[in-house]
Structure formats: structure tokens, C-alpha cells
Design goal:
CATH topology: Rossmann fold
Low-confidence stretches: 1-6
CATH class: Alpha Beta
CATH architecture: 3-Layer(aba) Sandwich
Helix content: 25-40%
Shape: globular
Strand order of the largest sheet: 1-2-4-3-5-6-9-10
Number of strands: 10
Distance between the termini: 18 Å
Radius of gyration: 17 Å
Strand content: 15-25%
Order of helices and strands: EEEHEHEHEHHEEHHEHEH
């Protein structure tokens, strides 16, 4: 059981600029010099499914860290259109979030990413000199991801400029940008403490990727499965478990 730290926690809306666009977030502050930056998933936002990130950020702050959850460009309240987003934009947003944290006097930062946000965190952890990395249901491979979710992908990529995916418009440029990133290679080069979390009832693509990550990761690294857990830990018990275990891990490694 995580012991709650009796600290006053404030929650404040914040904005910062990334690539000339306004990015909107919420800072959960307990007045510390260490901060956890939360990176949401594809089509998600700073609250995440069933307010997963709200609950996580509040618990992280209660444990004595600050937490920043924000909307990537084109998502949530941030500037831009979703159809114009790129993985490259997400990476730059994280870099600029870290720059904002530095300006505010933070001395160390950890990255926590869900799904595509997990992949984003992996891809930029070294560049932003993170002190710790946590991923929940991280995308393991960009090409396999799109092949899994988009029927007849190769034909669509060649002949369709913009694709409707469950009501979200995705441009060819997103696909072309995304497949240029090798998530497994990036993970293998990260030397900071890492925690990789995966629900056992997620898509086979993610479960398989979780096990493949174990073969290539460089220590120190901890892997945790959430029995019965879905992609965004939809059940309250699974959300509590992943948040609690992450909080325990952060206290030990960050």
C-alpha cells in the first residue's frame, strides 16, 4: 500500500508554446523540484480514458512529486487540428514541456506515457535527459500498429490522402512520419530506470510487443503485467492497480 504524503496539492491550468502553437495543460503541484510529465495516447487528451491521467497525476502529486499532463498539438484544448498531427509534433511538444519545466526551476523530470504517448516518451527520453521512464501499453512498432488497425493499409497509403479512422481524420503524412521511428531501437538505447506496464487483455499486438521489449531492454528495467487489464485499464480496479504500482516504483527509482 502506498503511504500518502500529507502535502498540500494545487492544480492549475498552464500553457506553453511549442513550434509556435499554444499547448494547454494542468500542473499538479506539491511544491517539489521533481516532476512527472504525462504523455497521452493517440486520439486521447490530458484527462485520458475514464480520467486515468487525472487520477494518476493527483496520486503522483500526493506522493510528493509535481505532475504535468498536457494536450499534444491538435488534441484536447491545445492549438491545431488533429488531422495535422504527427509523431514528430508530439516529440517536440515533450521537449518544449521539459523546457517549460526547466524555466520553472524543476531539477529532474520523469516521463510517463500511455500507448502512443508511451512510444513518444521512449523516442525522446534520451534527448530530454529524463531521469526515469514509465510506459503504460506502449505502442511497440508503428508499422505493425497501422497494419493492425487499418484494413488494406498499403493501398490506402498510396491512394488516399486522408483517412477516416473511427471518426478521426488521419492524413498520409502522419503514417509517413510515424514509420520513420524505430521504438524498439530507441528503448534499447535508454539507460535510465524504466518501468514497462501492460494489461494482459490488450490487443495481441501490444501484449506481444511487451514481451519483445523484455528481450532488448537495457537494465535497470521493471516489467509489470496487469492481469485482465485492457489497453487503457478501463476497470476501476485496474486503474487503481497501475497507478498504485507506478507510484511505488517512482518512490524507489525517481
Amino acid at each position: 500500500m502506498v503511504k500518502r504524503v500529507n502535502k498540500q496539492v494545487s492544480e492549475s491550468p498552464i500553457t506553453f508554446v511549442s513550434d509556435g502553437y499554444q499547448i494547454v495543460g494542468v500542473l499538479h503541484s506539491s511544491g517539489q523540484k521533481k516532476i512527472v510529465i504525462l504523455c497521452h495516447g493517440f486520439t486521447g487528451n490530458k484527462c485520458e480514458n475514464r480520467r486515468l491521467f487525472v487520477e494518476a497525476a493527483r496520486e503522483i502529486a500526493r506522493q510528493g512529486y509535481d505532475a504535468l499532463r498536457f494536450d499534444f498539438y491538435g488534441s484536447g484544448d491545445s492549438a491545431g487540428e488533429f488531422a495535422d498531427t504527427l509523431v514528430s509534433h508530439n516529440i517536440q511538444n515533450v521537449k518544449d514541456a521539459v523546457a517549460w519545466c526547466k524555466e520553472k526551476g524543476y531539477e529532474q523530470w520523469a516521463l510517463l506515457g500511455l500507448s502512443m504517448g508511451g512510444a513518444t516518451a521512449i523516442l525522446c527520453a534520451n534527448d530530454v535527459e529524463a531521469s526515469a521512464l514509465v510506459t503504460w501499453s506502449a505502442v511497440p512498432d508503428m508499422k505493425l500498429l497501422f497494419e493492425h488497425y487499418v484494413e488494406d493499409l498499403q493501398n490506402k497509403v498510396q491512394h488516399v490522402e486522408i483517412y477516416d479512422h473511427d471518426g478521426w481524420l488521419i492524413k498520409r503524412a502522419f503514417w509517413e512520419d510515424a514509420i520513420g521511428y524505430d521504438i524498439a531501437d530507441a528503448l534499447g538505447r535508454i539507460r535510465i530506470p524504466k518501468m514497462i506496464v501492460q494489461g494482459t487483455e490488450d490487443s495481441p499486438l501490444f501484449v506481444h510487443g511487451f514481451h519483445e521489449f523484455q528481450k532488448i531492454v537495457y537494465p535497470p528495467a521493471d516489467f509489470m503485467e496487469i492481469p485482465g487489464g485492457g489497453h487503457t485499464f478501463q476497470k476501476p480496479s485496474h486503474r487503481r492497480q497501475v497507478i498504485r504500482q507506478t507510484a511505488i516504483w517512482l518512490k524507489r527509482h525517481f
